[in-house]
From TrEMBL:
It is a peripheral membrane protein. It is found in: Cell membrane. One of its GO terms (molecular function) is ATP hydrolysis activity. Transmembrane segments: none annotated. This is ABC-type xenobiotic transporter. Coiled coil: none annotated. Pfam families: ABC_tran (PF00005). One of its GO terms (cellular component) is plasma membrane.
């Protein structure tokens, strides 16, 4: 994974969000079928799944917007059944659709949120000013939000979510519809939040986004968690990973093909493809074998399935090997 270094290692016992046996149905339609979730403090957790898989339903339940049919939930150290108001005070939620009021200015949107959080006028103005500056919206603060670009509206939406300084934030598809530059800007904002100790629960339809941001990813399919782990752990569930050895010396290539008969050959490119799960141990084994055989490859590259492969395998009915225990909660 490319970008989880921004978050510090969480305390293994400090969970920002836990859910056990979470169930929700609408009539005969089972949306969540007894799912378990655990999100350590100060991390980014991403919930993936096809449209209609129940991602938004999970967010709405965990953020107290709707009730579950069954299951235990703790958010920010508070039990949902016993103290939902304490949870509401600890969280912020940015939904799929912007909560920005286009008829008023960006600053007025921020002050409205400050009023809803019962901040004093001076505290509300200070919070609004700080957040507008943080999200690079000062120049547009006095303009109607209807004049903002899509990226600006999403930044304002997230800034409004941060009024009251929540330590847990639910982001439900926060970058949908944004251009690549605006999406990358939003990613940087999310990373900065987590570096400050905020916990982010993210749903997204962009697999690249989960790969870039998330410390852990859960794939939701048919109401259940199909798999969970880091991006790298999930990629190793899918067959097709390999190590590619490329040679410039035909003699070295022939020696390697003779010694490694199970490798797939590409005589034109002078390359061999060795099945591999991409682990350090397996890579070291291949390197040790090359040294022992006295064979020197000019190039060694490791190829692993990406999250697209994982997503389609887990949600499309393909056979997926059992998860290793370390990748299962």
């Amino acid at each position: 994974m490319t970008a989880t270094g921004t978050s510090s290692a969480p305390n293994a016992t400090a969970q920002a969000i836990t859910a056990t046996g979470l169930r929700k149905s609408y009539g005969d339609k089972v949306v969540l079928d007894g799912i378990d979730l655990a999100v350590p403090e100060g991390t980014i957790f991403s919930l993936l799944g096809p449209n209609g898989a129940g991602k938004t339903t999970a967010v709405k339940i965990l953020s107290t917007l709707i009730s579950a049919d069954a299951g235990g939930i703790r958010v920010g150290g508070h039990d949902l059944a016993a103290d939902p108001q304490a949870i509401r005070a600890a969280i912020g939620v940015t939904g799929q659709f912007s909560a920005v009021d286009g008829l008023i200015t960006g600053e007025e949107n921020m002050l409205l949120m400050a009023d809803l959080h019962h901040l004093s006028k001076s505290e509300g103005r200070r919070s609004a000013a700080e957040l507008l500056e943080r999200f690079d919206l000062v120049d547009a603060a006095k303009k109607p939000a209807s004049t903002y670009s899509g990226g600006m509206k999403r930044r304002l939406d997230l800034a409004m979510t941060l009024v009251g300084n929540p330590r847990i934030i639910f982001l439900d598809e926060p970058t949908t519809g944004l251009d690549p530059r605006s999406r990358h800007n939003m990613w940087q904002i999310i990373r900065e939040l987590v570096s400050d100790g905020v916990t982010v629960f993210l749903t997204t339809q962009y697999l690249e986004e989960a790969d870039e941001l998330a410390d852990r990813i859960a794939v939701l399919n048919d109401g259940r968690i199909a798999a969970e782990g880091s991006a790298e752990e999930l990629k190793r569930l899918i067959p097709g990973g390999h190590v590619r050895l490329r040679f410039t010396d035909p003699a070295a290539y022939q020696s390697a093909t003779s010694a490694l008969r199970e490798a797939a050959r590409d005589d034109e490119a002078l390359s061999l493809q060795i099945p591999s799960d991409g682990t350090q141990r397996e890579l070291r084994s291949i390197l040790d074998w090359l040294d022992t055989a006295g064979i020197e490859a000019d190039e060694l590259t490791v190829h692993t399935p990406d999250l697209n492969d994982v997503f389609f395998a887990l949600t499309g009915g393909a056979n997926v090997p059992n998860q290793p225990k370390k990748a299962v909660r």
